[in-house]
From TrEMBL:
Keyword flag Hydrolase: no
Described purpose of this protein according to its UniProt entry: The RecF protein is involved in DNA metabolism; it is required for DNA replication and normal SOS inducibility. RecF binds preferentially to single-stranded, linear DNA. It also seems to bind ATP.
Protein's organism: Pseudoleptotrichia goodfellowii F0264
GO BP of this protein: DNA replication; DNA synthesis involved in DNA repair; double-strand break repair; SOS response
Binding, ATP: 30-37
Entry-linked InterPro entries: DNA-binding_RecF (IPR001238), DNA-binding_RecF_CS (IPR018078), P-loop_NTPase (IPR027417), RecF/RecN/SMC_N (IPR003395), RecF_2 (IPR042174)
Recorded GO MF terms: ATP binding; single-stranded DNA binding
Gene Ontology CC terms: cytoplasm
Keywords (A to Z) from UniProt: ATP-binding, Cytoplasm, DNA damage, DNA repair, DNA replication, DNA-binding, Nucleotide-binding, SOS response
Pfam families hit by this protein: SMC_N
Family: Belongs to the RecF family.
Subcellular location: Cytoplasm
The protein, known as: DNA replication and repair protein RecF
Length: 364
């Protein structure tokens, strides 16, 4: 799939415009502070309804404005053209597919996108909730029923916590919620185990191919239940149930859930050592880049089409050799990518020069 056209109104510092994009390579080029990141943020926002820089959508409104519209035409794997749009104001966010208003759950995942931004290093060094959010989003892109499980699980967890806090743990309603909690929780565990197993193999292959053929990189699912590697769904549920029973008394004292996949974590291990504590900055960046490339492979396997890729500030990440191997990767795979840079890159495609929010197209 690829994005053919992008337009936006009131998006950060960008001057309202309509842009025709290259099917493969789009270089967003300019000096610091001109609007390069804002441009790829608009692409990301169109695809996901979210920014990769902020949770507060209001920050996307141009100063003193209270509404943003992004609009784009994309071509899917059957070469069909579709139109997406998001209209957001202070109160609500509306999603449109081919000019019809739709729910977010139906909108997200139509235009798949993978991003690589400086803040992604947090996936390794940040706290477990960052990794959980990251993998939740990635698994959802490939599996719609996972997104549903996550949304349902979060609602159930909230109610379960409320019931524990109110000490209504012996009532019938608690046991109904407990059953739902275990059922959805187990679905999440199974999806996570499967996804991590598959992506870990790709991650190692990609890291070796792109950066270091002698290294061994593993991604491990650190499930709150301990080792569930070879367990069936029923066995996992059983273990979950025992875990709940064991922690019930303490949950009552503390007033919230002490068990469940909301406690899961994921560990990156480079040559047998936890990357969070032992890997260098350059190795961490390379691990994350390999992870992103592996996500592309996973999406291609699941959906049989390539997602879009956006990468902010390539020059600040990698040396010349690594930069070349990364750019070669995108060119060979024929992925539509959007790369921002303060230096010109000698690659065939479209160059968009950004100056004070104004986008100037320069065919290369
Ligand atoms: N909501 C907004 N409305 C208007 N301008 C904004 C808004 N948010 C940020 N800006 C301004 O937009 C400008 C461009 O920011 P952006 O991060 O897109 O630049 P950039 O070209 O990627 O810069 P760099 O190379 O330094 O990363 C900044 O000067 C910033 O202050």
């Amino acid at each position: 799939m690829y994005l053919k056209q992008l337009s936006y109104s009131n998006f950060r510092c960008l001057e309202d415009t309509k842009t025709e994009l290259d099917r493969n390579f789009n270089l967003i080029y300019g000096k610091n502070g001109q609007g390069k990141t804002s441009f790829i943020e608009a692409v990301h926002f169109l695809a996901t309804g979210k920014s990769f820089r902020t949770k507060k959508t209001k920050e996307l409104f141009r100063y003193n404005k209270n509404r943003v519209i992004v609009f784009g035409k994309y071509i899917n794997k059957n070469e069909e053209e579709n139109i997406l749009a998001i209209d957001v104001n202070e109160e609500k966010k509306d999603f449109y597919i081919n000019r019809n208003k739709n729910k977010y759950i139906d909108y997200v995942g139509l235009l798949n996108i993978i991003s690589f931004i400086p803040e992604d290093i947090e996936i390794i060094v940040g706290n477990p909730s960052i990794r959980r959010n990251f993998f939740n989003y990635e698994i959802s892109q490939a599996k719609k029923d996972y997104l549903k499980s996550i949304v349902d699980f979060e609602k159930i967890l909230k109610t379960r916590n409320k019931l524990i806090k109110e000490k209504k743990t012996r009532e019938e309603i608690y046991s109904i919620y407990n059953e739902k909690f275990m059922e959805e929780g187990t679905n999440i565990i199974i999806h996570r185990r499967e996804f991590i197993k598959n992506i870990s193999i790709l991650l190692n292959l990609n890291y070796r191919k792109l950066f270091d053929p002698k290294s061994e990189l593993k991604l491990k699912y650190d499930c709150f239940l301990g080792d569930i590697d070879k367990k069936t769904k029923e066995e996992i549920k059983e273990k979950f149930s025992e875990n709940i029973k064991r922690k019930a008394e303490r949950e009552k004292i503390l007033g919230y859930s002490l068990t469940g996949p909301q406690k899961d974590d994921f560990i990156f291990e480079l040559n047998g050592k936890n990357a969070k504590s032992f890997s260098s900055q350059g190795e961490k960046k390379s691990i994350i880049f390999s992870l992103k490339v592996s996500e592309i492979d996973m999406l291609v396997k699941e959906k049989n089409e390539y997602p879009l890729f956006i990468m902010d500030d390539i020059a600040s990440y990698f040396d010349e050799v690594r930069k070349k191997s990364i750019l070669d990767y995108f060119i060979n795979k024929k992925i539509q990518c959007f790369i921002t840079s303060t230096e010109d890159l000698n690659i065939k495609g479209k160059k968009f020069i950004i100056e004070k929010g104004k986008v100037i197209t320069d065919e290369k």
